Amino acid sequence: MGTFSQIKPALRTENITYAVRDIVVLANEVAKKGKKMLYLNIGDPNIFDFQTPAHIIEATYQAMRANMNGYSPSSGIKEALGAIEGQACAKGIENILDIFITTGVSEAIDICFTALVNHGENVLTPTPRYPLYSAILNKLGARLNPYYLDEKNEWQPDLEDISSKIDGKTRGIVLINPNNPTGSVCTEQTMRGIIRLALEHNLVVFADEIYDKLLLDEGRHISIASLDRDVSVITFNGLSKAYVVPGFRLGWAVVSGRTEVLGEYVEAINKLLRARLCANHPEQYAIKAALEGDQSHLDQMRTKLRHRRDMTYEMLNSCAGISCVKPRGAFYAFPRLEIEGSDASFVRELITQTGVVVVPGSGFGQAPGTQHFRVVFLPPEDVLKEAYTKISQFLDTYIARQ
């Protein structure tokens, strides 16, 4: 027999991290020791007191019973695509060139980046940001080009920073609205500034709007694609969060803009869609049921989240060494730490000593010299109260030691 040596993984995997789940490795080790764990790290409503609406489950069940269990068309089934188009039009999106359904928004992002970005090129991504964007860009050998969200301005994108970082290899701008991890909601004025830059430099705007139905204050969500019919936008959305089915893995993308600008790019996307066959077929029958059916669960969900957001904002801001901008949407907060050392070290010690699981801000990116952590305020209020009390007590001793 020959000798054995390590099989080396591809170099493209070296810089791929996913802080939200990476932190679970430590949490699992702590849990094995018998410590009570309080998980504020993963945005999965189903593991708390949120239920999938019955009519969504029924639509999927009926499709399975009708043997819709083979492959679907690569872009998705007709009735689901029609429901998505109807909702996009209702939000004011015009010049729709294509719509396609994917295995979660994650696959849509991966496909759209893969079809656009070459090795060494870059995409402007918000900082803080959902870590999937940096993982995909690293996989493609593209350059992460971070632009900063302004914490002093309720985490709005910094237009001057975006403008200063556009170069000859910039292909697009990511806008996550409402934002994960900060919970901020982008203003129309800011979005119009992003549109101006995208048109000036012929960039694609990747608009991640998965939390658009989870605004926690008055007002309606504005899709950036609805503000200008000529700007090239791919609007991402899905059922995971607002319709409480993250395990269905159903997302979609709506491509809008000018055919003469986006035609070749759309065809490249469709090549990749055809190559991977299709998204989950029977679950696609849930899309029309979700978008056009009973929406009453959304009011209940927003009411719960509003109370939990308010508790999060008040309790965290009462902690010495923490300041927190009030989230306006989704179910995340991104409090700032006034400590010495790294937020990663703080979070590791917090988990080990208290069992409260949060995610370090460095996993999402943050302005140099700042330290943060992300909390998910999906858990019931008694769980949040216990977790925030433990964070406050831990922080008192942590700062005193420093």
General description of the model:
This protein has twelve helices and 15 strands. The protein is of the alpha/beta class. The protein has two domains: 11-51 and 296-401, Aspartate Aminotransferase, domain 1 (Alpha-Beta Complex); 68-292, Aspartate Aminotransferase, domain 2 (3-Layer(aba) Sandwich). The chain has an eight-stranded mixed beta sheet with strand order 2-9-8-7-6-3-4-5, with helices on both faces. Strands 10, 11, 12, 14 and 15 form a five-stranded antiparallel beta sheet that branches. A two-stranded parallel sheet has the order 1-13. Strand 6, helix 7 (188-201) and strand 7 (204-208) form a beta-alpha-beta unit. Helix 2 (54-65) runs antiparallel to helix 9 and helix 3 runs parallel beside helix 9. It is globular, with a radius of gyration of 21 Å.
Quick structural overview:
The protein is an alpha/beta fold. It contains twelve helices and 15 strands. 40% of the residues lie in helices and 17% in strands.
Q: How many strands appear in the DSSP assignment?
A: 15
What count of helical segments does DSSP give?
A: 12
**H-E string:** HEHHEHEHEEHEHEEEHHHEEEHEEEH
The rounded Rg comes to 21 Å
Cα-to-Cα separation, first versus last residue: 57 Å
Largest sheet: 8 strands, mixed
Which structural class do the helices and strands define?
A: alpha/beta
Secondary structure: helix percent? 25-40%
Architecture of the largest domain in CATH?
A: 3-Layer(aba) Sandwich
Shape descriptor reads globular
For the largest sheet, list the strands in their spatial order.
Answer: 2-9-8-7-6-3-4-5
Query: Low-confidence runs (pLDDT<50, min 5 residues)?
Result: none
The amount of beta strand, in percent, is 15-25%
Number of domains: 2
